[in-house]
Every structure is written in C-alpha cells, then in structure tokens.
Design brief:
single chain; 288 residues; alpha+beta; Aminopeptidase; 12-stranded mixed β-sheet; 8 helices; 29% strand
Length: 288
C-alpha cells in the first residue's frame, strides 16, 4: 500500500459522497464514525476549537477499504486496518505534519496504529479507554419487570438529564464531558444529540436513564445507560434499556448496538441477558 492510496479532505460532503456506502456497509462496527460524522454534518461542534475536522479514505481497486477522521482535538478515529496499513497511515500523517493526541479504533487496529505512531514520532501511547461492542440479537425483556414505566424525556426534564449525565461521567472518568457539561456547553458534549428515556417508579420519580443516537445507516446506538448507585440492583437499568431498544426496533433499526466495559461483569451480564451479543473490543490510546 502506498501513501497515495489515502485521500484526505476537510470537505465533509465530498467525503461522505465517496465513503458513505463503505460506512453503511457495516453499521454495527462503524457505529461511532457514522454517528460522529453525521453530527458534524448537521453542524454539531465538538467543543475542541475552530480547526476543521480532517477526513481520510483508503482506496484500492476503485473501492474504499477504510476511513479515518481527526477531530479538532487531534484525536484520530479509524476503521479496521492491517498493521501495514496502520504504519503507512502513521508515516503519511507525520510527513504531512498532522499532529495527533490519540487514537480510537477496534483493539487490533488501535494498538497497531499506536505502535506505529510511537515508531515514527517517539510519542508513547497510554491506554485510556476500552469497551466491548455488543449488537442486539433477539430482545429478551427481563423477568420480573420492575414496577413503573418508561417515559421519553422532554425539555422540562433537562436539569435531571444533565445531573444524571454528569454523575455518569464522574463515575466513568470522562473528564472532558464533565468540563463541557459544567460550562453549560451541552450541545457540544457527546450527549447533545441524544434522545433520552427515563424509567420512572409508579409515583413518577426518575430512577434510571438511557439514551439513544438518531438512526444512521439503519443503526442506533444505546448510550449511555445510568442508574444512581443507591438505586441499583432493582432491575431499573434493564427496564430502561429494553425501552430504548424496543423503540429503536420499532423505528426500523436493523442494528441496535451498545458498548459495555468488559470489566463490569454486572452490566455485561445484564446486556447479554437482554439479547445483546458481543461483537468486538475497542480501545483508545492517548499519546504523550
């Protein structure tokens, strides 16, 4: 593979015209680029500054084989690459003078690229994120179902949603999201384009929350799911996950996906009981 096989642009419409079919060909595996790029296309900022997002596509034999995008934060996201392809891309970005703060991709691709980036720049990679992608097979509601009901969140619920999202970010260590939420920059946070649902007890008290992305390429991602610590173990997270999953299927989604921390055995087991099947591990690295 040659560096010339990579085609770079800052024109999102041109990029999607050429790479959109490739992204939609594997909507589960490509769920993050599908949702992030769609948000960018609609004019959603990512809170990282005025610099443009850089897009790249790898072409061979007249077909797109892989893509990347680099946000203004200089975080690179990739679809699947071989170690050789990752090395060529790393060298190409160095030659063009494009700095990177980190990389996110499926585990093998992210690791291969991080090692290549270190060879070419000396910047040491540090793993800062990891999760397992799951795709919904047959939705299987839990038994017994907790008392209460799901309710789609409205504008009057914004304060409660923000509180839950901040608590979620504190718990999982998403410092950048906390900063944006605390600054009131909700639209630029990763929650700004989500559709939220509460699970409420019979007296109308919200006890759990789940959100879903808008459908892109037939795919909907459930993200995040959160229950306050003192309310866990009562089936609320499972109930609200069923609610948003069922709504996605009713809307015509062909791929309903979510990420779960494999180290969290409780949530992983819950999602699998509900019908979510493991697909692939994803990893993020930051560069020193």
């Amino acid at each position: 593979m040659r560096p010339a096989d990579w085609h770079l642009t800052e024109d999102i419409d041109d990029f999607l015209a050429r790479a959109g079919d490739f992204l939609r060909s594997r909507p589960a595996l490509h769920n993050t680029p599908l949702t992030v790029i769609e948000k960018l296309r609609r004019g959603g900022a990512d809170g990282s500054g005025a610099e443009a997002t850089l897009f790249g596509r790898l072409e061979s034999g007249g077909e797109v084989r892989a893509i990347f995008y680099r946000l203004p934060s200089h975080r690179l996201s990739l679809t699947s690459l071989s170690p050789e392809q990752a090395d060529t891309l790393a060298a190409h970005l160095v030659d063009l003078g494009h700095p990177l703060s980190g990389v996110l991709a499926d585990h093998d691709t992210a690791t291969a690229f991080a090692e290549a980036w270190q060879r070419h720049t000396g910047a040491a990679p540090v793993r800062d994120w990891g999760a397992r992608l799951h795709r919904l097979g047959t939705l299987t509601p839990q038994e017994p179902f907790p008392k209460g009901s799901g309710r789609i969140v409205g504008e009057r619920d914004r304060e409660q949603v923000v509180r839950f999202c901040r608590e979620f970010c504190v718990e999982v260590g998403e410092d950048r999201s906390i900063t944006l939420i605390d600054a009131g920059d909700w639209d630029s946070s990763r929650f700004g384009d989500r559709h939220f649902t509460f699970w409420e007890t019979p007296d109308g008290t919200p006890v759990s929350m789940a959100a879903a992305t808008s459908m892109v390429g037939g795919m909907v991602r459930v993200d995040p799911v959160y229950t306050p610590a003192h309310l866990r173990g009562r089936g609320y997270a499972g109930a609200v996950t069923v609610e948003v999953s069922r709504a996605a299927l009713a809307a015509g989604a062909t791929d309903v996906v979510l990420f779960a921390d494999p180290a969290n055995l409780t949530s992983t087991a819950l999602y699998q009981r509900l019908g979510y099947v493991p697909v692939s591990d994803f990893t993020g690295y930051k560069f020193s």
